[in-house]
């Protein structure tokens, strides 16, 4: 099988207004993420909220094996139809890599069944990210710990189902911890949540963060995609006579 | 701590029409389940789809620690507002015991994030239910295997997230298997799915089935209910100066 | 069912030598833990390494539902026969609550199948313990976070199997995180590991630590104990003729 | 990264005695498994119990990324030193694929921490193997269900820790079910157990069985091998002054 066909979806509203997000991510977070994946040998197309079909049309998704998602202030603007298309594709095998404030995005919440709540603070504090599963594919080649000098804090308890894979846990200068790298299986697909990436800090310039995202994309690549192999009335294969 | 305040919710449409469901469960499945719980020392109130607020008003749920759910043909009739109330209560700690065709009920699917699909056959065949986790509280005092002489078949693959607790696996005469007793954590609450209970067969008369349901209710009792303890901006507890 | 019959097992060597351990835990850590459980309404007997049969004879274990374990420097002194008795009892349903440096104790490692390795530092630093699963029985009534002003640091990665239940994660002043409260199922029994408790600090005087240990004992209480219900040649229940 | 360096280890005693095992697997089970992997493009070396160092010397293991294991009657003959080498290698990342009666092999039990008990019957009955996780890499390209016309029965409850990955569940003609394809993480390594393969039947001639084993070998390939990255005293990275 070839490499994953990756789409990076970005809300792309913050970075178009003058201010720190535009300074840190000129051209948009999606382009920085695409560069990060290109460095790792993974080509990716991009899509944004203001594209036709919100960048999430049936055709867009049909040619996507792994969808990387960054959203923050405009979660509600994503249409319920688009969300239904995304979640259906995940159940059929598409990987979803949800970044940072995407913990509150509609597709992520629909797949989790929980509220996604957490505590937070924008204070530019130090985050130290520890690997708790050093043999995990998403941790391959990643230093433990690695340090982001200034980030938004996200704190526990994080209202998600117990992860099927817990890979990273963050330490914050102000006293909190967070399960920053988590994987779940849903249908035939895989979902990975990775915490860093507030729009006014520089996390997506960090080589270790970029490596984790590339690893997560590879991990979320569908292994055996397709429609769910049942969901229908079935005849007996064995005799029913007593 | 007192026992759980249990509400048994039933669609209660099949049993009001003349036919096998009315013969097998006169008075409704909810009354049979209430009897089963009463035998186990667990008092329960009942509610049905045609009650005011569909039996799922805010007051109904506020006095419910564990909600037992049976639905089949009228899942779509349950209002989205009622579903939102149920899932919010589960995240705050209420237990949910979803029975049989409730694998397609709206609250169950909203909490799972998957399609709930499976294969099925109504042929009155034999089901043998094996315990795979004999130390689990839901298996306490339950024979392994126990046999239901005539049931609807449900077959794998069952599109649910990997259960946090897998307790029972069924064997069917016609050649299928099914993960018949599964637990998940969502927010502060617990969800248990238990497979048996087609409306035209007699599963809820079976002493082992009744015992499993009583055990599941006790297991789903909230251990530490309440609103999610964060979800807000947080001040640092440790100094942020470098 | 009555409350659990609890045995608190302690190495009890540190506290018998003059020094900080004797000052902090006069009479031994086991007595302090027994007091903590008594406060929570759980009577407990105690046993120590220098007792006959190392306090782990067949009779000792036969009357134990939950075994609390504290060991540190003398893990190797525990006989392989005693370890085999403990692990066999856990598989038959006995709960095991392993505290602090018991991550290197023989019974814990035999049940985990991993090395138990972690990083550490004795510097009397602050530990902030966050609950990541606020609905879990072991978290009932426990503040999140709670703070231990001076403790030994344990850091990730901690070489244990992915926990079936992850309840607490610690933040340390020096920059580390740790999965401090973890549960696993083994056979018909449950194992809970709880991190705090270096012998020269005062963790077992801390009301929140004491509450967690009492909760863990209740959680580890056998729900359905007994020998494994198979392990033998079995006759077919269904006809084998084609 | 190149493909995995695979070693297939076989007890190789049954097949050297005249009888059905020698008829079904001339040359030994290991050679048949090597052929199965070769068909899937995976070269493999073989080793047997009667080799020098029991085929499990330090050099043998150092050049092994994934170890496939088949043992039955002579588990006890494998030296404790060899077992310690195998489990240490798994914790450092080596994959282990344990087949059939290897549920009682020493390395598997040491990594699980449980008894491995199950029920069984040698009656040449039909086994139907259902996939419960159709998106899992070990299920890629495998039909569900697939049928083995004559096999030994293994029945639940199977005394293993709850699998991190449950992929296959078997139905048996005589009335039993079994979790036939299970994965666990231990240290940096992965363990996969796959049930079929009694020495007097023909399971390893079955194309679907062969495919599962090839998939399991690829899945167990180390993603990030190496010694555990801690296990030592650590200096604080953050200031400890109050």
What does this structure look like?
- Four copies of one chain form a homotetramer.
- With 242 residues, the first copy, chain A, is α/β, with parallel strands linked by helices.
- Chain A has six helices and nine strands, in the order E-H-H-E-H-E-H-E-H-E-E-E-E-E-H.
- A nine-stranded mixed sheet of chain A has the order 2-1-3-4-9-8-7-5-6.
- In chain A, helix 4 packs across helix 5.
- The radius of gyration of chain A is 18 Å and the shape is globular.
- The N and C termini of chain A lie far apart (47 Å).
- The model of chain A has no long low-confidence stretch (mean pLDDT 96).
- The A-C interface holds A 128, 130-134, 144-145, 155-158, 162, 165-166, 169-172, 175-177, 179 and C 128, 130-134, 144-145, 155-158, 162, 165-166, 169-172, 175-177, 179.
Structure keywords:
Rossmann fold; alpha/beta; homotetramer; 9 strands; globular
Task: List strands and helices in order, with pairings.
The structure is a homotetramer.
Chain A: E1 6-10, H1 20-24, H2 29-39, E2 44-48, H3 58-62, E3 66-70, H4 80-91, E4 95-99, H5 106-112, E5 119-131, E6 146-155, E7 165-172, E8 177-186, E9 189-194, H6 207-220
Parallel strand pairs in A: 1-2, 1-3, 3-4, 4-9
Antiparallel strand pairs in A: 5-6, 5-7, 7-8, 8-9
CATH class of the domain at 6-116 and 181-220 in chain A: Alpha Beta
The biggest chain-chain interface is: A-B, 45 and 45 residues
Strand content of chain A: 25-35%
What characterizes the major β-sheet of chain A? 9 strands, mixed
Q: Residue-averaged pLDDT of chain A, rounded?
A: 96
SS content category of chain A = alpha/beta
Number of strands of chain A: 9
Q: Helical proportion of chain A?
A: 10-25%
Number of helices of chain A: 6
